[in-house]
């Protein structure tokens, strides 16, 4: 069963349709209510999409897993909800009227470190790269399998929770760069402070604490994104390029984040 970006409800099995009908009768609008089997403090997920059938289906799937769901059908309302409700994760569509997903993420990243997963019918490599370069934690193309969506959600939340509990939490100083994982900030040798996204912080921390050692793409994926995460072939390259623009004096001639062709990357002191 796949979700489609469409203005017509997707075809679903009768059993699931009956379950959704019962749920829909209980709540006609997306709200912050949760089912009786959820924990007292469930993770809160904001779904931002201008296609009502997609929002209803996604919300149903998330609630069945015990998550609390918020929803917005445009970027402006999403930003207002983020300010008010402080969600744990955002599922963000790209193609929306007014403030599209990319612009919305730019606004989010200028204020918050909340993890974001893009859900979009624009599944070309260039679109994925653009989303990741803006600071998204993941990018899932429509149509997608519900099981894959839930797996991605769990993986991102698991990484975020582990990081919040202090993995890694220690400040580190290498090559004149001071990195504080708790604030997602790095102080450069010239004293300038740069703001990082959570993924950028984890990636830089991993490279810095292994300074001088070449880390393969698989090692970085496992350490930063978690085991069993497939990712995209150029995903790490996207984040390394973003980090270079923030911490290198000349991103085109990096002195710290060095590429070892065909292998991976090394942090040079």
């Amino acid at each position: 069963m796949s979700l489609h970006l469409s203005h017509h409800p997707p075809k679903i099995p009768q059993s699931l349709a009956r379950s959704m009908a019962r749920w829909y009768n209980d709540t006609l609008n997306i709200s912050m209510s949760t089912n009786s089997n959820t924990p007292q403090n469930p993770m809160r997920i904001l779904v931002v999409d201008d296609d009502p059938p997609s929002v209803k289906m996604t919300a149903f799937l998330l609630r069945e897993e015990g998550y609390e769901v918020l929803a917005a059908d445009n970027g402006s309302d999403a930003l207002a909800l983020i300010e008010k409700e402080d969600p744990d994760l955002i599922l963000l569509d790209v193609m929306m009227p007014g403030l599209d997903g990319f612009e919305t993420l730019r606004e989010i990243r200028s204020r918050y470190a909340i993890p974001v997963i893009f859900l979009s019918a624009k599944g070309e490599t260039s679109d994925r790269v653009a989303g990741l370069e803006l600071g998204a934690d993941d990018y899932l193309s429509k149509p997608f399998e519900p099981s894959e969506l839930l797996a991605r959600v769990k993986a991102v939340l698991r990484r975020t929770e582990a990081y919040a509990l202090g993995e890694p939490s220690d400040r580190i100083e290498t090559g004149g760069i001071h990195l504080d994982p708790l604030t997602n900030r790095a102080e450069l040798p010239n004293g300038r402070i740069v703001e990082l996204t959570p993924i950028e912080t984890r990636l830089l921390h991993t490279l810095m604490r292994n300074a001088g050692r070449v880390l393969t793409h698989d090692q970085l994926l496992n350490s930063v994104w978690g085991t069993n995460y497939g990712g995209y072939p150029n995903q790490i390259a996207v984040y390394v390029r973003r980090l270079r623009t923030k911490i290198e004096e000349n991103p085109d001639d990096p002195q710290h984040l060095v590429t070892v062709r065909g292998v991976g990357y090394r942090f040079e002191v």
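Residues 195 and 210 are 22 Å apart (CA to CA). The two ends are 50 Å apart (CA to CA).
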